[in-house]
Amino acid sequence: MLSLTCKTAIKAVIYLASGFERGQKSSIKEIATDINASEHTVGKMLQTLVKEGVINSSKGPTGGFFITTKQKNQPIIHIVHAIDGKEIFNECGLGLSKCSATHPCPMHNDYKEIRDAFKLMCQQKKVSDLCETINGGFTYLMG
Description:
Distance between the termini: 20 Å
Strand content: under 5%
Structural class: mainly alpha
Order of helices and strands: HHHEEHHHH
Number of strands: 2
Strand order of the largest sheet: 1-2
Oligomer: single chain
Radius of gyration: 17 Å
Shape: elongated
Largest sheet: 2 strands, antiparallel
């Protein structure tokens, strides 16, 4: 359902949030290395997240990407909307352009149920919820 770029964006934001308490700012290279992603992809994606207000950046020798308290408490859906757009939760599971309740694809009803549950999770889960398990050593961003 989510693009690879969106999954990478979620990992990057969780990574930044997990360094929040230390006031950490991170470079593209650090983030890409620590989440096992391409620097090129991470660089472009981070710029989009800054433009959409999901994260911040500062320039100069002490610059880098970082997250504020408000951003740490935002729901994951903000990241999804910034990268994949708002229509991601209305798309057909088979990619048909005219799939609907009145003109369904063979997977429509089952996929809609899963898609709606995933959307609800993204609305309810905050970045802070996900970084707590990282900082506690219970979950990981690389596998």
